[in-house]
Amino acid sequence: MNPYMTYPAKIKKIEKHTDIDYTFYIEKIFDVREGQFFQVSIPKHGEAPISISTFDDETIELTIRRVGIVTDEIFNKTVGDYIYLRGPYGNYFDVEKYFGRDLVIISGGTGLAPVKGVVKYFAENRDKVNSIKLISGFKSSKDILFRDDFKDWEDKIDCILTIDREEEDWDGHVGFVTDYAKNLDTSNLDNLRVIMVGPPPMMKFTGIELNKIGIEDENITVSFERKMSCGIGKCGHCRIDETYVCLEGPIFDYKQGKKLID
Amino acid sequence: MGYKMGLKEFDKIFEILSQDYEIYGPKTIEKAGRFSDTNNIRYEKISSIEELEYKEKSLFSPKDVLFPVNETMFNIEGEKLKEIEEEDKKYLIFLRSCDLNAIDRLDNMFLKNGNIEDNYYKKKRQNTKFILMECIESYLNCFCVSMNTNKADNYSMGIKLANDEIYLEIKDKEFDDLFKGCEKENYTVKFIEENQHKVEVPNIEDIKLELFNDEMWEAYDRCIGCGRCNFSCPTCTCFTTTDIYYDENKTKGERRRTWASCHVDGFSDMAGGHSFRQNTGSRMRYKVMHKIYNYKKRFGENMCVGCGRCDDRCPEYISYAKCINLVTEKTREEA
User: Fold this and answer.
1) CATH number, domain A7-89, options 3.40.120.10, 2.40.50.140, 2.40.30.10, 2.40.160.20
2) Which of B128, B45, B98 has its CA nearest to residue B310?
3) Chosen from A4, A203, A260 to mutate, greatest number of chain B CBs within 10 A
4) Contact B224, B316 (CB under 8 A)
């Protein structure tokens, strides 16, 4: 068995969010869980780790930002073409952990993609949590992902969609996610659980704000992004201390995640 | 069983072994060293005992026999990955005790980590046997005794070359027949018991999180990030995969992997521009703590085998061995 072998998955639909962020709807050729990732490749151009945003029985959604050689090639593909997968790799968000809880999901930019499966699950199964709030920040209105999904979620869950700076024609929320994190309702602190996903500085400063209002690290879950060449604990790129993000992550209890020093 | 014979006589046995095995050993490459008129010593296929560089320490480790600098993982036709079809080869590798201990570290990474076996490594590893070269003396920068890697026992043959004669210890029954009728000698491999350099490894319980942010690492910002330490290290296993296509025929290409270095720019670069460890001092911390701490927490032994090649090779004359001692000192101060 060659663990590096890849398998073709047909592109069923492409949704354009911004000039550089598309969601590729592909055939579901593997069983997956929320928060896992694939090594996605276009042979002759390379491989890259891409997180799974959501899935159903037949389709997996991969939200991809065009930022390099591999993703350039993926963006050249159209419906009916194939992309190549191996995986899924890594641990996953255990949705059952949040049953009955007051769940807050905080995302920065494309960090919404790996946690989108959890948002979708609870939007569809609203009665499984006591309350759910999504705080999702983007640099500007041009960078917003999943606009259609937000419309759907807004009816079902408490959504704060915010952009970093004021813009003309924007009457929504403005400010960093940290500004909203510090004002979370902590009246039922013991029941509060937080998932935060985003760039390393965003997670660091959000973590500080959450701690300040009394939320303990063990009640916070994070998802890490790192460079990877293999996804199976061999290439060494994603190692932090004695932890391999591809094996023990990408999802970490913040109590552990905070102690990982790159 | 032990034997003694002349080098010419041994070469006849070498020839018989060559029929079944590809035989690798350290070899002197004239004028291929880092300065003009200096030699390089690296692992190459050898065809006689004369070619084996026995006296000097090799600048590179045997790891590239099992884990080549560049390795084709797949041939690509169109968008299809084709497995590499290669005949099963058997390998014999001449190496020293530190490097034999290093094979155990490679096994942990390639065969055990994540409970997934790397098929490319495994294919070579399962067909490999080792010939241990007795160290007559401890070389510059060696600290195997400190790392408990001065001894080894999982070798098929042990050898010593002295006065144009070869002394042999045959442990593997497979090779017994080859030596029938040869002059017997009461020889077993002797191990180095003391190095000039002594290194004290910290107790893993004494390592505090603060040490990772200690100012001691700033002194290593003088590292120029060339990666020589990683590439000469017998236990570094990191690699990067890359796809290529041929200029002459763009429908065909390869997926390859190449050694990677945690000291070299780009090691942690992610799509979108994020990266970690901008300062080379923090890269030194990342490597050193892996070799003597993080790996041990994961696998129960130190990754470093004390061969000292990193210190032999560093163009900035940074001493990794001294750095370990400094870490140990620091843990004492804090305790």
Assistant:
1) 2.40.30.10
2) B98
3) A4
4) yes
Residues of A in contact with B80 (CB under 8 A): 43
Cα dist. B273→A191, A205, B2, B192, B221 in Å? 37, 19, 60, 48, 22
Interface pTM (ipTM) of the complex?
Answer: 0.95
CB distance B77 to B252 below 8 Å: yes
Map out the domains of chain A as residue ranges.
7-89, 95-257
Query: pLDDT of B159-217, one tens digit each?
Result: 999 989 999 999 999 999 999 889 999 999 999 999 999 999 999 999 999 999 999 99
pTM, two decimals, is: 0.95
Best residue in B112, B116, B119, B214 to probe A by mutation, most A CBs within 10 Å? B116
Q: Which chain A residue's Cα is nearest to B108?
A: A234
Contact B114 A244 (CB under 8 A): yes
Q: By C-alpha distance, which of B101, B21, B112 is closest to B63?
A: B101
Sort out which chain A residues have CB atoms less than 8 A from B271's CB and list them. Answer: 48, 65, 67-68, 71
Same fold yes or no, A7-89 and A95-257 = no
Contact flag A236-B237 (C-beta cutoff 8 Å): yes
Scan residues 51-110 of B and list those with Cβ closer than 8 Å to A. Answer: 73-74, 76, 78-81, 83, 109-110
- Which fold is adopted by the domain A95-257? Rossmann fold (3.40.50)
Residue B227 pLDDT class (50, 70, 90 cuts): very high
Q: Which residues of A touch B (CB under 8 A)?
A: 1-6, 8, 41-48, 65, 67-68, 71, 82, 84, 110, 199-200, 225-227, 229-230, 232-237, 239, 241-242, 244, 246-247, 259, 261-262
